[in-house]
UniProtKB/TrEMBL annotation:
Pfam families: AhpC-TSA. This is Thioredoxin domain-containing protein. The keyword Protein transport does not apply. The chain crosses the membrane at residues 6-25. The keyword Transmembrane helix applies. It comes from Candidatus Colwellbacteria bacterium GWA2_46_10. InterPro entries: AhpC/TSA (IPR000866), Thioredoxin-like_sf (IPR036249), Thioredoxin_domain (IPR013766), Tpx_Peroxidase_subfamily (IPR050455). SUPFAM superfamilies: Thioredoxin-like. Keywords: Membrane, Redox-active center, Transmembrane, Transmembrane helix. Residues 61-214 form the Thioredoxin domain. GO terms for molecular function: antioxidant activity; oxidoreductase activity. It comes from the Bacteria.
Amino acid sequence: MNEKNNASAIIMMAVTVAVVGVLVWGASQDRDNKLTATKTAAVDMHGNPLGTDVSTTSLNELVGKPAPDFALADGNGKVYSLSELRGRNVVMFFNEGLMCYPSCWDQIVTFVRDDRLNQEDTIVLSVVVDSPEEWQEAIRQMPELAEAVVVFDDDTEVSKQFGMLTTESSMHKGLFPGHSYVVIDKEGIIRYVLDDPSMRINNDKLVAELSKLT
């Protein structure tokens, strides 16, 4: 009798262990499926799906073509649109912004200090994909940044239109610009582009290109 009871107990224990094992395995699979789904639906800091809807336009192909129209605001809410900037040469510096210390920050500050780029017929717009609130952290660390014209492309739409999310200098392809420049003439035509993976200060090159414009 005792042997039967022991056998029954062993069988019940084995069944219990098997059931628990199945439940644990099922929970593990469910967790893995959720993780996979999360990765599949991963989004960037702006809520855009990773790796999708990224422009593959070559920067060189932009030269000689009308620049995409844009309207971007600075930290005070002032909007700069290409249509309203007609009659002025526009230099756009697409960069990673807050995370690009010190290279991008130094370039932005150098724009302010260079009289050659502060003329009535020329404006330099430093385009970052941070929010105005996030950019305040950069200004706290380097107060000179507050003097620059920094505009916020926090949904990355303008950067996409110009093909700036897939450049060689971008360290986060599809998410952030890198260290790229666009020179637009007074008629709204792109006359020069430069992507610099070395992330140098390129004022001299920009001034040389601007000098070619009437």
